[in-house]
Write a structure and sequence with these properties.
By secondary structure, this protein is an all-alpha fold. It has a single domain, classed as Na+/H+ antiporter like fold, CATH 1.20.1530.20. The chain contains 13 helices and no strands. The protein has helices at 3-24, 28-31, 38-62, 67-78, 85-91, 96-125, 133-157, 159-187, 189-193, 200-218, 223-234, 238-248, 254-282. It is globular. The mean pLDDT is 83.
Length: 286
């Protein structure tokens, strides 16, 4: 096994452990929260799986971006929530039931949504797009749904053990993520920086900003839900986005670099958004 394979294995392990740790402190009621509230589910679906793909298409048509960037935007727009998002959302004050429910609902729907979205994109753009539903199912099941549901089950059977184990497993997941992500970012630095200066950075940052705005507006009257949906709409599963881009355009290695750029830029834009939300939640200082 070479070093790249080890790094990728550690990255996958970190994602699985992170979701598992979240599951240890969640419940089945949390996991099915959005399915039991159709209004919330429809708004989330509209925000993430309808409006953002339309924004991606609009940007692709309006700007003379590198083909790899256009591919990346399409891949990002149809990918589900990243497994690390619940931790960020919960730390920002999001409600656990809505956050976990959103993760489960959008991930489960993505198994059906992504192939349909690829078909629609192909008809609109005339570009041949395809990804095997089985490949999508494997990524979603192994990195999100199965570890989350196993964690929830253990929490139900052995709540004391689950409560004790959740924090150290979460810390281990974060450490693995850092150790595996840094070499990938350093190794791809030259490719990533080759996209600077041609409007790519502005387009990707704008895409993230639009995602935050759409999610915030469709999140409903509760500020906590608004911030969670805003983060979810702007942040997507990087592994699945890269898999979609590679499956459709394996000859475009820059697509992966564009997705890495998006992760960095969406993180920066989201940080500014969260600081604003925290000030709004704190209210006026007397």
């Amino acid at each position: 096994m070479n070093m790249v394979a080890i790094i990728l294995l550690a990255l996958k392990a970190s994602i699985i452990l992170s979701v598992f740790a979240i599951g240890l402190k969640a419940t089945f009621a949390d996991a099915t929260f959005l399915f039991r509230r159709p209004g919330y589910l429809i708004r989330a679906f509209l925000s993430m799986n309808v409006l953002m793909p339309l924004v991606a298409l609009a940007i692709d048509e309006a700007f003379a971006l590198h083909p790899a960037v256009k591919i990346a935007l399409v891949a990002i727009s149809v990918s589900p929530i990243p497994p690390i998002l619940p931790n960020k959302a919960l730390k920002a004050g999001g409600k656990e039931d809505y956050t976990i429910g959103l993760l489960v609902a959008i991930s489960a729907l993505s198994i059906f949504v992504i192939p349909i979205a690829m078909e629609i994109f192909e008809r609109i753009t005339g570009v041949s797009l395809a990804m095997q539903p089985r490949s999508i199912s494997v990524v979603v099941l192994t990195t999100i749904l199965v570890p989350l549901l196993v964690g929830i089950a253990i929490g139900k059977i052995a709540p004391t053990l689950a409560d004790r184990a959740a924090k150290p497993i979460g810390i281990l997941a974060s450490a693995l993520l850092l150790l595996s992500a840094l070499p990938l970012l350093i190794g791809s630095a030259r490719t990533v920086f080759s996209l600077v200066g041609d409007g790519t950075v502005l387009s990707l940052a704008g895409f993230a900003l639009v995602g935050l705005i759409i999610g915030h507006l469709l999140g409903g009257p509760e500020l906590d839900n608004r911030s969670v949906l805003a983060l979810a709409t702007a942040s997507r599963h990087p592994a699945l986005a890269i898999a979609i881009a590679h499956a459709n355009f394996p000859e475009q290695p820059l697509a992966g670099a564009a997705i890495l750029w998006y992760l960095i830029l969406s993180g920066i834009v989201s940080a500014f958004y969260l600081s604003r939300v925290k000030r709004q939640r704190a209210g006026p200082v007397s």
